Amino acid sequence: MTSPGETIEYGSSILGYPRIGARRELKRALEKYWHLGGSVHELIAVGRHLQDDTWQELAATGLEQVPGNTFSFYDHVLDNALMFGAVPRRFAALEPELHPLDFYFAMVRGNPDVPPLELVKFFGTNYHYRQPEIDSDTTFSLHAESLLAEHTRAKAQGIELRPVVLGPISLLLLSATGPVAAEDFSPIDKIDELIPAYLQLFKELAAQGAKCIQLDEPAFTGDRTDEELRLLGTVYDALSAVSQRPRLLVTGQYGDLGAALPILAGTQIEAIGLDLVSEPISAADLAKVPGLKRKRLYAGVINGRNVWKADKSQTLDHLLAIKSVIPDVVVSTSCSLLHVPVDLLIEYDIPGDVADRLAFAKQKVGEVVALAKAVTHGAPERWSARPTSVHFTLKHEVRQRVSAIRPDQRERAPYEVRRKAQQQVLGLPAVPTCTLGSFPQTAEIRQARYEYGQDRLTWDEYRQLLLDEIKRVIDLQEDIGLDVLVHGEVERNDMIQYFAELMDGYVATRFGWVQSYGSRCVRPPILYGDIKRKSPMTVEWISYAQSLTDKPVKGILTGPVTMLARSFVRQDQPLYETAEQLALAVRDEVADLERAGIKIIQVDEPSIRELLPLRERGRAGYLDWAVDAFKLAVGVARTETQIHAHLGYSSIPKVVEAFDALDSDVTSIVATRSIDWVLDQITSSGTAIKRGVGPGVYESRSAAIPDIDEIDERIQRAAAAVGSDRLWVNPDGGLKTRHYWQLEPALRNMVAAARRQRRRIEVHPPS
Ligand code: MET
Ligand SMILES: [Zn+2]
């Protein structure tokens, strides 16, 4: 406590931290345990080290308040559900048989009899959580041993952790309804039964002297019903009313709290954490929120979702303005740092002028600490001396091209005209069969790529191996009898990485891994400058494949929006401007493929739905420019060139309308739930996708080999829904993670089922 006149040392904190380790130690430990028979004790020891090293290192940076409970062996959302005793019913029978950690892995990985919990994208980030399942008869109880023990361990070292826990409302809103729920039940109905478990946690934390707990309520940065907003008030009134508890910090992350902010400010919680970067709020507007002045404000001014250094001087001005209206300010991050790579300093070959602008998790902690010091003691001279935006990335020809884009460059001939022209060129049978691009990345190809990276293979040697593999992939497809072939994407390890490396304006990292889910990590490339294709990116591979066969080979490209969604993107211009630059690069590739004789081109945009703004008000504008970018990319195609769009399924009508607005000749859809669900949606939806459609007749991610009858049944249902004349028969996604022994019989069955449907059409032609 400070008395008037004394200088307040401003607080500093972060809302969460990566848990995979700077060198993906967690991934390696998990995979060793799962696949190589490592011992459970060894795995637990690795976890413990990652956990404790994190808070020790954070405390050593000078961060005033260090978050706890940020470690997870797989997913923190599920961890929270389990901490409150919400074991998904489907798995309950396994509990007595298994080591607790194996029981946990059974839920996230499934077993031959029980599919794993659903994987769901987390608030517009590239993190995915395993969705807890709650039934009407779920009972809650507290199992916080691990959280409490960590708090005690840290305390013994003089470090006061602030445990991070998912707030009760978000926990229920993020959960799915389990299989034995009553009709009309939704998990949020359980809120009154869940509260006592939270109060129990407060009591136990208070008993061991914990000062503060962080409750995350990110669900409130999306649109919520009036009832849910009211609930927020009642729940936090109830949680703050008890006397035996630590101070409560409630955070809204990944966006602005909107109407939830005054409600939270009206409760007796002590502190509120705001994301001030997704939706900057001025000090004046903060001052208008009744009750906020009396709270401690965790000002989330450091962006937890990008890799750019903050403009410290400008951020300090914002903080000082906030401080003038809200006295108790803690400098903080906009969200957990889970979504950024761990440490920039282990990267050694990012060009200096780019590296100078970057901050990963460790560096962002440094920014938080430095800003907190500056709020109290003033800024170092050099902050204001730094130029804030230097356009070292500007390419005049790219800017000129973007500003000269004409609307007609996005338009193609009317669909009926295209359809006739394409039929003539392609001469495909009814219900044509194809795949969506990738074939398995064999051990040989992976090895060759590795050796090429190590300079142990020359480009010519590596290239020859790729060409040989393409030939094998083409021969196999001819043998199976597919109608439209692909080259197999053998040259691409990860499609985003592959294209990023071939464009100016992108850099790749070596160790910039971010957790996608569980042991799965991605290394998003960094889009820092104006984008330009260096030279044709795919033409050599695809035209070689086409030279081997008389059947059409479909060229496969990744679309502009998906490139954005899976990269760390520059912030000095709006996303749509960057999207147009990417679209022009794809457009040039489309033109080059055509020139090389390719007649069908698929542009993958599985991430269009993933960048959808959390709140309704931003959605129409976003979808408009996303559609425009796609149309700019493919608008160069000739009438007789068939354009396919490969998309990720969404049940939101506005998104489905946008899919249709892409005006592609054929649309294929990745079914993240199940193909049957997608088929039902297509049948029942009023916002259908017109033109050709390939809803997916078997799930490419599933290890099971579908039989002919099963595929046939789906084809018939799909044909009933959309009509045989516009139906394509294909798996729902790429095949790169499959083995040949799974894929070959699956594709043979698929082709056989399509032939059955063709015979049916011949006997009963559609009238
Ligand atoms: C997530 S997009 C998947 C399609 C891609 N062309 C592939 O086959 O892997
Ligand atoms: Zn896909």
From TrEMBL:
Please give the organism: Williamsia limnetica
Molecular functions (GO terms): 5-methyltetrahydropteroyltriglutamate-homocysteine S-methyltransferase activity; zinc ion binding
Q: Which cofactor does it need?
A: Zn(2+)
Q: In which pathway does it act?
A: Amino-acid biosynthesis; L-methionine biosynthesis via de novo pathway; L-methionine from L-homocysteine (MetE route): step 1/1
User: Which sites bind L-methionine?
Assistant: E489, D604
Q: Name one GO biological process term.
A: methionine biosynthetic process
For this protein, the record's SUPFAM superfamilies field holds: UROD/MetE-like
The yes or no answer to whether the keyword Glycoprotein is present is no
Can you give the residue ranges of the Cobalamin-independent methionine synthase MetE C-terminal/archaeal domain?
A: 432-755
Tell me the ranges covered by the Cobalamin-independent methionine synthase MetE N-terminal domain, including all copies. Answer: 12-325
Q: Does the keyword Iron apply?
A: no
User: Which positions does UniProt annotate for 5-methyltetrahydropteroyltri-L-glutamate binding?
Assistant: K27, N126, R520, C521
The superkingdom listed in its UniProt entry is Bacteria
Q: Which residues bind L-homocysteine?
A: D604
Query: Which named protein is this?
Result: 5-methyltetrahydropteroyltriglutamate--homocysteine S-methyltransferase
